[in-house]
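Hi U.,

Before I forget, here's the chain from the pilot set. I'm dumping it here mostly so it's searchable later in email.
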Amino acid sequence: MPQSEAHKYELLIYWSAEDQLFLVEVPDLPGCMADGETPAQAAANAEEVISVWIDTAREDGLPIPVPRRHQVVV
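Structure:
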């Protein structure tokens, strides 16, 4: 999957005191999560995880959810 497709999904990034890492959830892709030491690293890791999630769904013949949200926070 081209990386640009991964950019279409909303990323929820938050700090986890328990893990001492930034965590990322991708609400449109069940179970799709990543982490990183910085928000940017966590987002970059999420892009890779999204690609793997979608590739795996395609291989298994499962539907790939259409991105529902397009929220940008600056």
